[in-house]
Amino acid sequence: MVAGWFIILIAAGYIGLLFAIAYYGDKRADQGRSLINSSAVYALSIAVYCTSWTFYGSVGRASQSGIAFLPIYLGPTLVFCLGWLLLRKILRVSKANRITTIADFIGSRYGKNAALAGLVAIIAVIGVVPYIALQLKAVSTSFTVLLHYPAVGGIADAGPDSYFHDTAFWAALCLAAFAILFGTRTIEASEHHQGLVAAIAFESMVKLIAFLAAGIFVVVVLFDGFGDLFQRAAADPAITRLLRFEATGGGFSWITLTLLAMAAIICLPRQFQVIVVENVNERHLDRALWAFPLYLFLINIFVLPIALAGRLTAPAGVDPDTIVLTLPMAAQQYSLALFVFVGGFSAGTGMVIVETVALSTMVSNDLVMPLLLRWRRLGLADWPELAPFLLKVRRMAIPFLLLLGYLYMRLVGESYALVAIGLVSFAAVAQFFPAILLGLFWRRASTAAAFVAIGGGFLLWTYTLLLPSLAGSGWLPIAFIEEGPYGIALLKPYALFGLTGLDPITHSLFWTMLINIGALVGISLLTEQSALERAQAALFVDALEQAEAGRLWRGTAKLSDLTDLVARFLGRGRADEAFRDYAGRRGVDVAELAVDGELVRHAERLLAGAIGTASARVMIASVAEEEPLGIDEVMRILDETSQVIEYSRRLEDKSRELETATGELRAANDRLKQLDRLKDDFVSTVSHELRTPLTSIRSFSEILHNNPDLDPDKRREFLAIVVKESERLTRLINQMLDLSKIESGKPDWAVSDVDLAEVARDAAAATSQLFEDKSARLDLRLPESAPPVAADRDRLMQVTVNLLSNAVKFCPRVDGRVALTVVSDPTDVTLTVADNGPGIAPEHHQTVFEPFHQVGDTLTAKPQGTGLGLAICRMIVDHHGGRIWVESEAGKGAVFRVRLSRKVALARAV
Amino acid sequence: MPDEVRRRDRLIGLFLLALVLLNPPLLMLFGGGDTVFGLPLLYLYIFVAWLLIIGAVAWIAERRAARRRRDADG
Q: Tens of pLDDT along A870-892?
């Protein structure tokens, strides 16, 4: 027998240490040197997840069903894999909107709905009370076990009979004091409770070290390492069974537990408190993503070995939930047993403290406050200072919650194992999970749907888990479970509608999630959202994409009303400070602040931090006359916006068109200028070309006229020159007429089927005299007949003659050779004239086809033609839809080719 | 930004992998009661898989943190 006072002294000393740490943490925070501004402390504070359930219950469960305790810790690991997506988003949203509890979160997401937030708060309280009871029970049991040292077995039921001897009661009182002192310091629930978090992180260290110490002691001291332990376990078939997967109760149970734990790590009020509200810096999440799962890993490594050791060595009658404690006791290790007791005590107290603080915020902000606001007309609105009142509500809520937990433990908890109680709580808060998850990623999830989903899920949870647990403890007839209410077998709570073969938790989770998710998705799809719902949904869904969505706000408010309102809830000093900060950020004086949507939103957010978003909205509405932003108005705004967008798009189109038109105009202008220049060139060239023959005709005529006694031979020679020059003049004028006729597009075409080979032969015959004069040779490479082209025969003749006479003109005087070829392919007929003259340099290949262009310097060399022949050729060929071009290099002769399409040649020409 | 997207996708992939590794039917495969070096295979498997997943999360998360620190310095 160990003196009870000694154990109580240890426990009291431990709580005293917690007070000291919390006090120190708060003091440091007041000095601006935060203790908790570190990712390690953040990760440790999240480990408040590990409670007495973990410390005592896991071993108890492992000793019965092997590794079935593990999904509770694997689930959070899975969620933390997604933490960067999921938790970061929750963090962002909550910080931006000063959300302080899970009820506030859901209420705010679904249109700042106070009723929904209230429902969530009620469920959280009802759901979590058993969980608090679990901690008290563990504290009380462990105390009793330790009290009977060194007796180990058969004392589990020897509970104390009087409240005054009940450690759980006194522990609850101490914890209430702690939670009130360090959890409700200021009215702003969004503020960090630095001392509290420091104490929680310390507790997480203590419980981890204590459990590891127990584990190492069992494995190394009681046994000879893991190998020895497992070998001895293998000798007993009943224990070997625990090492198989079947022992866990099957795949369904495993998956159910994993899902429950995934939901719990987000939905449990205390987890939301430490992960979101007490988060000092978003970057701490990075390290916590792996540090917290690592913590879970470490605290679980020895669970199975300790459980096996308990099965191997502990005497019969020991409560499996106390194995961790009884093993060191059985080995006469009293100080270790005390240390383990302190570890378990820390696991329980940490949970209770944070949970009650979180729940008290929920009760005051989401239950009491909205109700009082309803009664506002009865006088609350006239209270000058509401902050002290709200704090009182919170401080009263904490002992009230602990009392509820204590009563539940006394009335129900005694007959259940730790894990069974905890799982009932998990299943309750899991009802929030679909609404949170879909709310974060699915815009359309609506308020009505969330209401039905959470409410329906909760009712089914009550029926399939809570009521049976009462029945199991004798508060309802046991027939309720075994035969169903009023003997209706279909309504048996553990086999609803005849669904059997699942364990109660899996069974309940299936039915509750069926109605929960079904209602959430179904009703969301069927209902329309209000403007406010839409705005809030967008705020949550787009939290990571945009810094802050400016909500539409139209209305009027007075600055003094706003400041007075905030002051009533936050106190005058804090309110003035908040508004001064706000004005300072905008670089103006408080008195000069413009009352716009931004300021009203700021005031609302300040209030939300103290009294929750739904209540804050109601309060703001009381001083700011907000014009209800109906759907019509939103549609009108949207209409206006879309019209403006439409106009601006049209303007863009117009300006683009203008640009294009300008570009076209500029191009046309350039072209006109070029044409003008060409015309000038043309006129000057033509006058030059006309003057040359005229000058020679006139001068020779003058000679003949002034010298009548000229030698007859000379006279004939001069006359011949005059005739020749006149002919040249005539030809020039004819060609110019031709050119302008073709250019104006009105030549008289006589279109028929033309055989190019025949044309080539005729042209060769017509120019044979030229070749003889120049003693040049003409090679004809012509087929008998070429495929017909539709064309004007005389014009093609003109082209061919032109090309031939050009060719012969440029032939060398000695050994001049010209080749005339006609070839055809499936689509075209090509006529080629090749000479062995000086050739044409590539840069002139285009220009030779321009009027009056002559290769070579016309000023020094005598022109050898009119300079219009090739221009006319090109026009004729163009009008036939064909193509004419030259291939040549200087010094290597020139090859002119004319290509005409077969058959369709004229279709394009006319 | 593409960096952020890649990291997000990696974490989602890791989540899916963890989902498969830490649930039946893989657990049934390892949970047949076999032993390795005297240790139960199921116990060994689940803790090793768990540790690997934690390590992978740490690798991805810390690399991001390190890069952000570097960006902040630079």
A: 888 888 888 888 888 888 877 77
